[in-house]
Amino acid sequence: MAVAGNQRNDFYQIMGLKKESIDVEVNHAYKESSVGTGSGGGIQTGEEHTTSDNRASMRSNLLEALNEKRPGVVQMVKLADKERESLESVKNEEEDYMLTELSLLKWREKTVKFASEDNAVKMEETKKTASGLQENITAEREKIQDNLKVLKELETLHNKHMKRQEELATALKRCKDEFKEFERQDVKHREDLKHVKQKIKKMEEKAEKDATKITEITRQSQESTDLIPKLEEDIRKLQKDLLDEDTILESSKDKFVILDYWRYSFLKTRLGIKSVIWDQPRIKFHGHLGPHLLSPQLLHGLYPVPKIVGINMSSSFSIVYYKYK
């Protein structure tokens, strides 16, 4: 219905007229017509006649305007009827929906009633449970009080242990520092011990070498001691041999002088060399030999003949190298 009223207002706005003005004009025309006919057919005055003409012209103008707007109004009425029919279907749907909602509310009421009864039972059970829990809470509070007392005692004991722990931590720190110092000293002593061991090893090796040298020197000394008598005997023998060799040498000097004399003579004759250098040895040795001077044939039988190896010439004289067969 509210939708229909809104549509009528839209209709009046489309027509360009207000509902109040149309109603006023219609009522005014109706009153004038009733006044004109309600006089009982009496004679009208001139002024009344003029007024009635004006009113008639106004009514005719109004009727013409209304006749002009009638098709649009009829069309709007038809539209309003169609809208009303569509609204009837909507109304029926709304009524069905409201009935469904009413049925749903009734079922909800029943559900709430059943839930309320169930909740009442549960409330009783909850009250009983709450009373039991209250008793349990009271007992637990008593236990908590006892536990608080025990906790205070434990806190006191804990504080004592914490103090003891601090003392032990201080002692542990001191021991760690001492242990670090001990480790440092231990490393130092280990290094020193390592160096000492190396020195001892070197000294032992040196001692072994020295012992080997001492043994070798002792052996050589013993050998030398053993060789001294033998060497002394050899010295005596060599001294004796030296004396014998000196005697032989003295006895052989004359023979070598004669040999040298004939060698120079032989070389001079063989090579055909005439020089004062070759004559000087002859004169010198001739004086020494005297009666011992022998002939070449005799000397050839007594001494071996020298073999000339080569001649090396110099600026002044030649030197002949030879060796005996």
TrEMBL record:
Name under which the protein is recorded: RecF/RecN/SMC
Protein's UniProt keywords contain ATP-binding: yes
Coiled-coil ranges from the UniProt annotation: 123-241
Endoplasmic reticulum keyword on record: no
One Gene Ontology cellular component: condensin complex
GO biological process, one term: mitotic chromosome condensation
Region named Disordered: 33-55
Keywords, comma-separated and alphabetical: ATP-binding, Coiled coil, Nucleotide-binding, Nucleus
One MF annotation (Gene Ontology) recorded for this entry: ATP binding
